[in-house]
Amino acid sequence: MNITSIDYEKLRIEVRARYIVQWITATNRHGELIIMGWCVRDTDDTQWATLFQHEDKNVCRKVCDMLNENEEGA
User: Fold this and answer.
1) 43 CB contacts (<8 Å, ≥6 apart)?
2) 28 domain residue, yes or no
3) Into how many domains does the chain fold?
């Protein structure tokens, strides 16, 4: 699996979690890839809906953990 052809169904099975943290990227004027922030995505949604965005990865991880915890308890 490489960054240009991600098989999201395969990723969802491997991760075994409904909600995941994913980076938000952009390219700078030198063509370098930079991380702009992070988001929590719903892998159960066919469009992989973005539920939450923040510039701090740890904040997104905590939100993601809470969402996945609720999913396990359901």
Assistant:
1) 8, 11, 12, 15, 17, 18, 19, 20
2) yes
3) 1
